[in-house]
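Page 42, continued from yesterday. The earlier attempt failed because a stray header line got pasted into the input along with the sequence. Redoing it now with the clean sequence only.
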Amino acid sequence: MAVALAVVFFRAGSSRLGAADWAAVRFSATQAAVSALASVALAIPVARALARRRFAGRAGLIAALGAPFLLPVVVAVLGLLAIFGRAGVLNSGLAALGLPQVGIYGFHGVVLAHVFLNMPLAVRMILHGWQGVPAERVRLAQSLGLGPGGVFRHIEVPMLRGVVPGALLAVFLICLTSFAVVLILGGGPRATTVELAIWQAVRFDFDLSRAAMLAAVQFGLCAAAVLLAARWTAPAALGAGLDRPLALPAPGGWRRMADGLVIFVAALFLALPVAVLVVWGVSDLADLPAGVWNAAATSVALALVVAGLTALAVVALASAVARGGGLARMVEAAGMLPMAASSLVLGIGLFLMLHPFVAPSRLALPVTALVNTLMALPFALRLVLPAWRAAELTQGRLADSLGLVGWARFRLAVLPRIRRPLGMAVGLAAALAMGDLGVIALFASDQGVTLPLQVWRLMGAYRTDQAEAAALLLMGLSFAVFILFDSWGRRGADT
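This time it went through. Structure tokens are written below.
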């Protein structure tokens, strides 16, 4: 990865950005900032309602909030088009009433899609903040006669001050590196991000120096966002507690109705596009052309390769870090480095490295697998490393006394205790690789077409029915590969 970034910066030195490029930089930052603000602003009331209400299906709803993270972006966009597109449910209803239609393309469509994809993540992050409030603080507030307003001012607001900046910056970083959303919903030159400008510079103009310069700018923006996120992610300390379950005051009356309405509207907003896509796409599954099924097989193979590479890489890195020593910090930093770069930035670096020797399109799938593995490593390392350290802490001395080293030590002392997070990490890597439409769009020709690329091409050819059916297939396969590896992690995991 470091070599690819070095090539990008070396090639960027021979290019200058024009007015259109700087407009793309401004649009990238603006849409990411607005998307982050909207996602977090809408997430706060949803998280608060979930924190203070108990109802049937609450646990399932909270678990379902993680689904959009696995949902391929092209599937999410097609679902939103099924509701807000020109022939969508909303515009069909408006037309029946004789009212003007609404558009989804352009800046507002990009923000809408980012809110759909990232509001659940913000809800989970902020809900964790509420769940981290010591229950004793709430009981003390109640004993002092503080009502819901007083509890909010003195307990919840300090918590939000610690959690919200980290959520804002996390969503900002995700939206800053968005490619597929802007590719489909951008709506023209006035709605072009840096990621899209990189792709256009390579695919349309073949201006590699300009693409490298844009990639260097994008890396700088991402690195700055990562540094800020690292500074503000930790929530503010609210004092020690006894780890008792939090029980926020749950006032009745209009507040109870408001909480219920917030939860219902959020669930409807997230579920309706996917439900409509399922209803519209299921009838055309049997009529999909052979090219879609070939692309599906390619995507499954790609996901399995990424899963295997991620497992090997994260085990090697976590082992080196857990052993400690002078290189541990450097190894951990290397594993987290991909957070400061998008997949397209890494892709253009590898493109520049390969171009003098071989046609990059011939290596589209290997490069896509490599980049997806690198992008999954920070998440995988954050999931696996704490469990590995805990395994060494609790089992290390016993393993040393028994002379366990190498594979035997890993199989008997470590693997049972990291199996659950390892399975989840590998499943996430496989699912994200299934839905990737970044690097493959940069490299691919007519060979090695993946399912997300095939869905995008069907949309471009106005074969909407087949695109919806193919997107439904993609969604099912993405969740299937995640469940496959996550279930492996849960089976036999040390509890």
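Notes: Confidence is low (pLDDT under 50) at residues 234-245.
Reminder to self: strip header lines before submitting.
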